[in-house]
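In this section we walk through a basic example: taking a raw amino acid sequence and producing a predicted 3D structure, encoded as discrete structure tokens. The instruction is simple. Fold the sequence below.
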Amino acid sequence: MNLEENMIDVQTWTEHTIETSFMTNSAFQMWLVIAGRVMLLVNGTAIQLDAGMVLMVDCGQLTKVERAEGSFHLKVVSVDPFALFSPSLAAQYVTPYVGMIGYHVLHPTDAGEKAILDTIDRAVRRLKKESIFTLLDVTLQLAVVWRYWIQRPSVTRRHGQERMQRMISYIHDHDTMKLSLEDIAAVGGLSRAECCRYFTKWGDTSPLAYVQDVRMQRAARLLCETNLSVAEVANQLGFTSVSHFVQTFKKVHIRTPLAYRKQKT
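The resulting token sequence is shown next.
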């Protein structure tokens, strides 16, 4: 659901639809776990989210969802905080805080956090109701959430976060190419060994394994969103052998491309 040209965006994810590549969010986000359990890394720190918990994430953080063994239901609300206030209020209450806080987990068992959890829940439920006041009501509730957020203590960006972001962006921008470890390391200004250590630390993976994962996520989107044949998808991703593409896809998605497309459509 989108309101006012993505001022507020809500996505519903399950273990079948969520992507496991790194995400660098450009908006303030709230991850609401409706059911099940989600395991993820935020700036390299492992976090477990259970039903009823909410992860609040600042702009520009590195978030990576781990592969889920069980089922879960997750809603991610992305908000442009500048759109919640007038320009003068935004200059005072948004600009100084964007990218300064990092992330915070809300627990339903914490009495001090229950009020803000209830406010987030009301905003999400209000989004389901279509009326001329929906945007106004949700904006007011999210402004209260933002007020709570900016009272969180500021954090220092982790050493190497910008290097890691550059390497990840490079991989995503070149996901149809066959990238080497040397290519990725050079973007981060690192040796090959240092590059491997970064990916292990931040994402519990290797650089080339991450490249493969990103390419297969692109393949999954092409299979679901286009009518391209498996051979055409393989060709777009630079595979010279369809059988090699099918084997690679199956390693990541646990099913063949055709079975994946059938399940998703």
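Looking at the output, two observations stand out. DSSP finds ten helices and nine strands in the chain. The CA atoms of residues 179 and 225 lie 25 Å apart. In the next section we compare this with other chains.
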